[in-house]
Amino acid sequence: MTTTTEVNHDDDHHDGEHHEHHIPYGIKRWLYTTNHKDIGTLYLWFAFIMFLTGGAMAMVIRAELFQPGLQIVEPHFFNQMTTVHGLIMVFGAVMPAFTGLANWLIPMMIGAPDMALPRMNNWSFWILPFAFSILLGSLFMEGGGPAFGWTFYAPLSTTYSGDGTALFVFAVHIMGASSIMGAINVIVTIFNMRAPGMTWMKMPLFVWTWLITAFLLIAVMPVLAGAVTMVLTDKFFGTSFFDAAGGGDPVMFQHIFWFFGHPEVYIMILPAFGIISQIIPTFARKRLFGYASMVYATASIALLSFIVWAHHMFTTGMPVAAELFFMFATMLISVPTGVKVFNWVATMWRGSMTFEVPMLFALAFIVLFTIGGLSGLMLAIVPVDFQYHDTYFVVAHFHYVLVTGAIFSIMAAVYYWLPKWTGKMFHIGLAKWHFWCSLVSVNVLFFPMHFVGLAGMPRRIPDYALQFADFNKWISIGGFAFGLSQLIFLVLLIKACKKQGEPVSAQVWEGAEGLEWEIPSPAPYHTFETPPVVK
Amino acid sequence: MSNKQVQTNNSKMVMKLVAIVFGMFGFGFALVPLYDVLCDLTGINGKTANTAAIYESVEIDESRLITVDFITRINTGMPWQFSAQTRRVKVHPGEMSQVDFLVKNPASTRIVGQAIPSVSPGPAAIYMNKTECFCFEQQTLQAGEEMLMPMRFYVDPQLPKDITYFTVQYTLYNVTSSAEPAEVIAMNRG
Amino acid sequence: MKRILFKVGTMLTALMTTRVFAETTDKIDQYTLNMRKGVTDISAEVYDMHMLMFIICVVIGVGVFGVMFVSMFFHRKSRGAKPANFHESVKVEIAWTITPFIILIGMAFPATKLLINMEDASEPDVTVLVTGSQWKWHYKYMDNDVEFFSKIATQQDQIKGKIPKGVNYLLEVDRPLVIPTGKKIRFLVTSDDVIHSWWVPDFAVKQDANPGFINDAWAIANEPGIYRGQCAELCGKDHGFMPVVVIAKEPAEFDKWIAEQEAIQMQAKEEEQRLLAMNMTMPEAMTQGEQVYLANCAACHMPNGEGLPGVFPALKGSQIAVADKPRHIEIMINGVTGSAMQSYAKQLTMSEIAAVVTYERNAWGNNTGDLVQAKDINAVMNGQ
Q1: CB within 8 Å: C231 and A374
Q2: Which chain B residues are closer than 8 Å to A193 by Cβ?
Q3: CB-CB: which of B73, B106, B119 is closest to C381?
Q4: Which residue, B185, C76, C108, C217, is the most exposed by fewest CB within 10 angstroms?
Q5: Which of A115-129, A329-343, B44-58, B174-188 is the least confident region?
Q6: pLDDT digits (tens, 9 = 90+) for C32-48
Q7: Hey, are the CB atoms on B107 and C121 less than 8 Å from each other?
Q8: Which residue of chain C comes nearest to B115, CA vs CA?
Q9: Which residues, in sequence order, are CB contacts of B46 under 8 Å at separation 6+?
Q10: Between vectors from CA A105 to CA A100 and to CA A106, what angle results, nearest 5°?
């Protein structure tokens, strides 16, 4: 897919409106901005701060689990740490980071001047710090914050939780609203604002994956809102959705939650697939193999994600027929996912590769995400899942797909597009240190979790039996190392925002193709005010 | 396409998407009755019917003998004593049977209880047809009162051939604080 | 490339050394790297299935990564590689869609067969009702009414690091479940409060304990022994502290044990009736009461009676402990609906309840001077 463009830079006039040439500055700029680049930056910095915050909670968890015995925190506080760590990472780090990337890149990739609904865009972002202040604030309430896991099963979250649950519900509603608004913005932008000539099958893969993700978001975030509302009413307003005494069923909560929850995890990985599909072709200097196949595979994964939810519930007492159905459907998802991996490898095959930092992260993604995917396939097999469920084997699986999967892809994306955003090449030495330290430590951190899970260590426990001690010690060491490695990234980002580094060209990377590489670096505040013509 | 046209298209699309959002929110709540319906139809969560079955022209299947066990449990906060007079019955599908349950309220106040049944294996639940059951309504016992509660049922002959045995558990909950008004009126009448 | 090899080499070496150490230490370490085979036919089949899936996944992984690494080595710009032009092939896409699909079907057949085998709990020899609550298990043999609670036996001092940890740290209970070997045991699993999950890895049995609902599972233990598991669903503060211990004995021994338990229960009931006639002195009640309190109540209400604000109420200075004696006794016996306060009628004897109520009404400066006797508890439990 080649796109040639006639780009008009920074056209002043647009239907008779006058533009100001100077970019706003100060707090007012960031508070009131409707510019997709600024909002993208806000989302990305917010996500990084949340990543460090959630990471700090993980450090508390790993410090307590460093040795058997309770040395550092009380079990109730430990449960709050695991719960809020999960909520922050899912709703505060991964999702906003992908949304930040969407904001920065989608308009540029399709030749649009901005997102379709710029003012709603501003709102979508600014309610997030508000929501997370509420969530983090609940930790300081009497009784503490939510301590029932990010999955908040009833009746632990209803009858047997503290009043902080109300704040948790409120925060989740706001986060959900932010995601829904963001998704609507993405869909409308992609549908209505593509440059002439940018047909569906010419769109970059990142745009495709975000389009499909956005549809998943508007389909399932409202269901989460419903679930969380039912928890609120069961707890405070006397309903009995999940209370057997009143005719309800606690397992129904799990059905409703996971109907949201499973597509949610695909929401957290599809944009990653898009990112990798942009990066590999650039550094292999070869077109993405099987573009159409990649689009169909992504759509299949999204559709299938709606019919597998009960694979999180195999031990709840489901009849055999249901267990078989969900086993088969879950196994099926590995087919389109495998197709994507094969297509990336085929892109690399007989290419001409170089290994700049974005490529390093992308290659690590392919290997490590695949490991996570394979452990997922093992988990799908019901009779064996009885031994894996709710153990560290599951924790290993989802951290592989989320950390070495989603998070690595986000880092890859940042390294890939940062020079476009700032106009300067980032500090390559720091970046390489960041990559290698992260790569080694993340595996020391998560790989042994497979072993302790198989050996019988359950999840969400603050203390464990002695046979799990050795591996837990190493896991904690890996955790501290991984956490420290992110400080290298922080230093690099601060330097980049200070505009330090060598200036770069428009294309930045030899082999990079797409509309965003045809505008100057740094990207001007307003781009594509006159749409390019795509051939 | 003019700017205005794009904005109109955008607005239309936004409306459609917002409609989907509200629709899915409603769907989330609709999952509740949907779940109940599916469970009623398939019994997969082990819940039996909430209303009395009718025993009419049911053929007794002499070739099969089904073992039914009864378990009684009291939930936290419920002081009653609760036991099944017969813990195990062997019945032919289609054959009418009765099991009595004894309840006693040793407390010094009136208490309203609700019995919640659960069947294991779950798929057997929809074949457990109760024509009379104390679990259909809340039950009130005054202080010190004792009662024998009958439960009449028959196993549906359609019970799958591979099920020869199931357990029925009744959990008694104390629902005095959310008791039906009729009970409160009855109590005030003395 | 070098770095990758180095990393892989280090990991393999580490793994192997652990293996070596595992074989030379206690039996307990033997399953540190992998799932255990367990002691039932089903658990062995589950293990075999796990290994089959694992090997298939390893082969797939090695295959894909192998191609990747070969490409990363040979198709480098620094090696002079020039990029090829191909970018799609319908044949190839079909091939690598169909092939995984076939592999999956191959995996699905044995998995389906095993699952269907696992789910048939009919015709048991012994049925046990397993009830989870915060934070212990309750077992009741449905055939002969023997029942008891099973709580973690590891002392707090070990957990706090004051004394060395025992070999079965966190995996030991005061009264384990006992079952006969070679017989089909049906486990009916339910809960009194939140969702728990009863898991015995050696049996490959894990079933959620849902409040108000009942699930079933079964196992036939082939060998006598002690089998340890844990609660496998987050259930609150002490989720990590409610282990499952099952002892499998030869049938003759099991019969003997059950008969003994019936006798012990009978004796305990008689003892309780005898104690009803006796009165404790205040010092006796306070001493026993404090022991009972620390063993049963302090987990939530805290040794200093101050509870956990916002989660578990304080007893020190509370209205119930200082004034409302009837309510105090009633709560101990029946629990409180819709809260985490359980009923202790079956967990403690009447003398123990009397002692702990006395303790709570006089400790921490509550000083009511109340002395509650077992007969007072009996009066409330069985009605006047």
Answers
A1: no
A2: 6
A3: B106
A4: B185
A5: B174-188
A6: 789 999 999 999 999 99
A7: no
A8: C212
A9: A317, B118, B119, B120, B121, B122, B125, C213, C214, C215
A10: 100
Give the CA dihedral A154, A156, A158, A160, nearest 10 degrees: 160
Q: Which residues pair with C175 in a beta bridge?
A: none
> What is the DSSP-derived secondary structure letter of residue C212?
T
pLDDT band, very low/low/confident/very high, at C29 (cuts 50, 70, 90):
low
Distances (CA, A) of C347 to A109, C263, C312, C353: 67, 18, 20, 9
pLDDT at C372 over 90: yes
CB proximity C281 to B under 8 Å: no
Tell if the CB–CB gap between C337 and B106 is shorter than 8 Å.
no
Stretch A230-253: mean pLDDT, rounded? 94
Residue among A396, A401, A397, A407 nearest A472 (CA):
A396
Pairing relationship of beta strands C147-150 and B88-91 according to DSSP bridges: unpaired
What is the C-alpha to C-alpha distance for residues A376 and A370, in angstroms, rounded to an integer? 9
Indicate the pLDDT class of residue C299, thresholds 50, 70 and 90: confident
- Segment C306-332 mean pLDDT: 91
For B15, the closest chain A residue by CA position comes to: A184
Average pLDDT along chain B: 88
3-state class of C183 per DSSP? Answer: coil
Using CB atoms, which residue from C119, C337, C381 is nearest to B76? C337
Determine the residue type at C19.
R
From chain C residues 306-335, the ones with a CB under 8 A of any chain B CB are 330, 333-335
Tell me the two tokens of residue A447.
């790989």
Q: What pLDDT does C44 receive?
A: 97
What is the structure's pLDDT at C277? 84
Which residues of A are identified as catalytic? 85, 114, 150, 178-179, 262, 264, 266, 277, 311-312, 337, 340, 459
Give Cα A125 distance to the centre of its chain.
16
A 10 A CB-CB count for C313 gives 18
Q: Lowest-confidence range among A4-18, A154-168, A423-437?
A: A4-18
Calculate ∠ Cα C320-C325-C328, nearest 5°: 55
Read off the pLDDT of residues B138-188 as tens digits, 9 standing for 90 and up. 999 998 899 999 999 999 999 988 889 899 999 999 998 887 555 444 444
Please judge whether B50 and A251 are an interchain contact, meaning their C-beta atoms are less than 8 angstroms apart. no
CB–CB contact C206 A389 (8 Å)? yes
Give dist(CA A193, CA A191) in Å, integer. Answer: 6
Nearest CA in chain B to A116: B10
Set of chain B residues whose Cβ sits within 8 Å of the Cβ of C130: none
What counts of helices (H) and strands (E) characterise chain C? 11, 10
Res A8 pLDDT > 60:
no
pLDDT the model gives residue C19? 43
How far apart, in whole angstroms, are the C-alpha atoms of residue A197 and residue A324? 46
**Cβ pair B25:A223 closer than 8 A:** yes
Residue A22, exposed/middle/buried by CB under 10 A (0-12, 13-18, 19+)? exposed
pLDDT at C236 over 60: yes
Q: What is the pLDDT of residue B109?
A: 87
* Run of H or E residues at A378: helix A357-380
Distances (CA, A) of A78 to A84, A318, C17, C142: 10, 31, 32, 38
Residue B189, SS3 per DSSP: coil
Residue with tokens 């709710």: A390
What are the C-alpha distances in Å from C268 to residues A242, A480, C272, C348? 38, 53, 6, 11
Q: Which chains touch A (3 or more CB pairs under 8 A)?
A: B, C
Site of tokens 């990112």: A275
Q: What is the 8-class DSSP label of residue B48? A: P
Q: Cβ separation of B73 and C131 shorter than 8 Å?
A: yes
